[in-house]
Description:
Elements: E1 5-9, H1 13-25, E2 29-34, H2 37-47, E3 51-54, H3 63-73, E4 78-83, H4 88-96, E5 101-104, H5 112-121, E6 125-127, E7 134-135
Parallel strand pairs: 1-2, 1-3, 3-4, 4-5, 5-6
Antiparallel strand pairs: 6-7
Helix pairs in contact: 2-3
Amino acid sequence: MGEFRVYLCDDDDGYRTLVRTVLSEDGMQIVGDSGDGAACVEAVEQAVADVVLLDLNMPGMNGFETLARLRDRLPAVRVIVLSTAADQTSQSAALRLGADGFISKPMRIFDLPDLVREAVRAAGEVADGHATEAVNP
Length: 137
């Protein structure tokens, strides 16, 4: 898959701005963002996103519920979880709910574009935010 259209869903405004900047500078097209799951579900369809980067820990509709709704409404959209909740239970639950990948928020933000590409290529596997290779859950 070449470059793709990305929608960001994270409750941290500053982190969304940082991710938007880093991915845009690396050639990805950011088609929208939101700070909560309900807004994400409503906006992704209109944004015509190829990939949704989804945080799990959000107020209101959390990432797990958002993921389930995205799968129901937009099964073709790739949903990559991008979260600090990197424990095995969260990863397994997200993948069971239909996430196409899981990225632990990286220590080095400039690693993120390669991690996103790898997660999209290796759908269903887990990309470790501390490395640039996908690893099996």
